[in-house]
Amino acid sequence: MIPTLLVAAASAFLAPVAAMCPTVTTIAVTPPTSGQCCSSTVSSTSSGGSAILAALCIALTGAGSGVAMGLDCVPDDDPVTCGAVSVICDTPDPSWDGLFAINCLPPPPF
Question: Where does the signal sequence lie (predicted)?
């Protein structure tokens, strides 16, 4: 799981990385369909969320004022077995390797 301290450190040290991106990958926010079990959630516009996106040269479109990002996620469709923060997100890109998922919402009630 990603410690909160790591997210805070990322925001302090990785923000300048955005200026070093040769190209920016634009990702459209889509309706969430993928069950995820994440260690925590942050806003994509928070210092930690924006630092992660900047470090990976990612820009979100269709996000309005920002969306919730799940951090340190694994696929899990069962909120009972999650043991952390169970959310429904856009299907994460495999290249993100569980680091984060975007547009995360609480799962519907049983």
Answer: 1-19
